[in-house]
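Morning!

This is the sequence you dropped in the shared folder:
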Amino acid sequence: MCVQRYTHMKTTALLTFFVAAYFSVSALVEHFIGAHGLIGAFFESAWWWVLYVVGVAHLTITCMSLSFHRHHTHKGVEFHPVLDMLMQVWLWGITSMSKPDWVSVHTYHHAFSDQEKDPHSPVQKGFWRVFFMGVFDYTRAKSLPDVLKIRKTIKLNALERFISENLFTGPVLFSLALMALFGAQTALILMVTNFLISPLFAVGGVNALAHTWGYRNHVSGDNSRNIGFLLPLNFIICGELDHNNHHAHQRSCSFRHRWFEFDIGWAYIWTLAKFKLARIRHLYTPSTLRAEMAMKVRALMEKDHRFKQKLDELAQEYQVSAQELRERLAAYVQGKRVALDDRLKELSAELQRTVRMNERLGLAYA
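The structure's back. Tokens below.
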């Protein structure tokens, strides 16, 4: 009871301080710079706010996806230290998040994905709870004993350590810059927007949506799904909505596994790698997926009695060996240029459907 009362008093004191600080700084900005700040008068259109939301949300989630997620958590890519620190400083200013907090909680999420211990699973907590309240579950998860154990293993440089020890300094400095640029009233709207970006687009947008609806390319042991076809949202969230792909192949720095999927994050990594600002360490691509499917199809044709019999019959009809027919079908599945008639193409499709069904059911020859 005393702890709850102390926490409530501390929260009230912080809110009172921030409100008082806001009005004090507002008066100073209006007196020395003007009510619209340095450039606020040029951006009074509602379209400016829309562009700000889309631009800052995309930049913020991109920094989160590339730095915290693909680089520091899963080690799929490495960025130039200066570029990486720029991304971390931006995240500090917009979200007040730090590398050790984010990486440790996300590592814990993968260890218990959609299980009872998962801090943001809609399977366990419900969709609306994760979508709107997931940020509070993230905050609580940071202090869990198992998460703190993971946190202790994360190496930090001097700036990362300073950020982790001064989480709210970044948003305060960023908010002061917004007030000076746009004036107090506009800055207040932008500050609230900044605060909502991570809870709605990252914690809610990815974990709630992509663990509830969508299709699956892989059996991943959880309820992760792909909904990258929501292209405008997936652009803002930097390709993170092809979530089943990521959960099945966590170390890959690309979330695009099929020809029709698009991961803008991978496009950024590929471009940065060309300029020696990124080093690709692990990569899973559509060609990798086709090669894996070809291997599974080959195993299915060799071990499943029904398909073995069908291949023997077709081999006699086409006057080729069953082994040659298997190799042609596997090569076709892998994407190689192989001439097949409609019957063999239909058989290829049936083989792939069977492989996927066997995987979902946990059957052999998958």
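Headline: Residues 33-284 form one domain.

More detail when I'm at my desk.
O.
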